[in-house]
Model the fold of this input.
Amino acid sequence: MVRSSVPPDDRTFPFALHAAAAAVAAGKRPVKGLELHAAALRRGLLLADVFAGNTLVTFYAACGRAADARRMFDEMPARDVVSWNSLVSALLTNGMLEDAQRVVVGMMRSQVPVNVASLVSVVPACGTQREEEFGLCIHGLALKSGLDSVLNLGNALIDMYGKFGDLEAAMRLFNGMPERNEVSWNSAIGCFVHTGIYEDVLEMFRAMLGHGVTPGSVTLSSLLPALVDLGVFIWERRSTAPNVVSWNAMIANLAQNGAESEAFRLFIEMQKNGGCPNAFTIVNLLPACSRVTSLKMGKQIHAWSIRRSLMSDLFVSNALIDAYAKCGQLSLARNIFDRSEKDDVSYNTLIVGYLQSPCCFESLHLFEQMRSAGVEYDAVSFMGCLSACANLSAFKQGKEIHGVLVRRFLSTHPFLANSLLDLYTKGGMLDTASKIFNRITQKDVASWNTMILGYGMLGQHDVALELFDLMKDDGVDYDHVSYIAVLSACSHGGLVERGKKYFSQMLAQNIKPQQMHYACMVDLLGRAGQLSESAEIIRNMPFRANSDVWGTLLGSCRIHGNIELARWAAEHLFELKPEHSGYYTLLMNMYAEAGMWSEAHEIRTLMKSRKVQKNPAYSWVQNGNKLQAFLVGDA
DNA sequence: GCAGTCCAAG
Done:
């Protein structure tokens, strides 16, 4: 325009700056806007035109430069109410509520006639920051200036009171409104969503429809997380096109409620309909990938995040680390961790991720690295570290962490206390464990389960069973882990009949037995020499037995020298875990002991043809603060 | 031509 010598007038400038601010919001650098500022100075525009100054205040706010926005305002030769309002929202968009409050007060003192915009912009911030006192002040000002009947302000106030938890004030405003629009209804619905009384949410939604108000994308987004079971119903009856937020809400709704593949389908459909997935979409979908261990979908979403340059978002990179770790892909998870920005969640996610892996000692390394990196520990970090210590039998280090927790008054934290129980029971230190256990005021199901498992493992079955009965008296209901604990106590104690009783009790309680429960039953019967009954259990399982179950049977066969069943179990194990050398060795030794040399030789050949390596054995050595693994030779 | 209300995440 300038180059083609068409003179730009006063109106061109705000337009152009608006575009420059939008570019900044889209991730571009602010050069265009700075050039425009310079041009405006050269032309003396800022001396003559309030509009130019106002737009610059907003532009600097959009760049995240609140101080520059304020300087712009201070240097303006003349200001109007929009200048003040622009400064207020400039401060608010940069999270400076207190400064914004001071400006509003200054505005009153300078006798600037406030309008709706002056008040309406601070109201949402008061709500989210729980600034009740100032929020009530604003409401008071609205009443005094007669602005309280303005629709926008009323809507904002309803939402604010909802965020304060003052449902009565919110409803009084809502019911007294001279007119309502969709936002009024959304704000009112939002108040009930906060309270968690979903019958009321639904009732408001019905009332909204009854008043002939069309629910838009914002209504959808706030209803979907609240009304999970009605989600699809509402979604299918939507009358307006969804926006990114409502797509995301629906995807989250499906992903978090067991409809993972539906969520993936919607992700595709969203893009077909021109929706552009963002960081929220990714973060909602990734846990669904790990829940159904869909590595393929996870990788697709990873690739998508790279293309849309979303990898710099901490939520996205952390969610990816978590998804890969949960799918057992620790090296992929590590890769992202090493290349990304890191916060406490990144460290915690990977620490927990390594726990169930063969590289569990990495959890301890990371815990140490976290400290060197100056990232603060939280309860999750300590929990991960304690579990790692328990898994690695690193009891000395575990005790040190216990000391840290005591000094930080965290040793009675509900799930940290449980991690301590796990550590001490695994280390055979039942006295310490039971002292901690007795000090937990709110014992949850995990606390009881850990103690029962501990006593069961260490041969004190009577105590384990006693605890199992006591937990019910304490008002804590059994879960599926409780039954694993009690069944394994029975099997270690040789209490076959009692074990059978608990198993049927579990079925009666409508807890569906999982692989581990069957493994316990197979162990219970197998140890007692009732191998054919063990086999019968496996044959009658409602799903295919995994390696835990077959491995247990193989172990019992070894004890009782039943080669026939051992072969049967081993055949399944060779298929399920072909790389696991222990199973081959066990069967081979059984054949050898029975003098069945040709069969033993066959297994040896099978091992060679599959290139199965014997696992080297490691020993853990404390080296300063670090735990090191040393190879001690062939197992 | 500038300012201003409601919705979603580890």
Q: What stands out?
A: The longest strand of chain A covers residues 626-634. Strands of chain A lie at 616-623, 626-634. Chain A is about 70% helix and 5% strand.
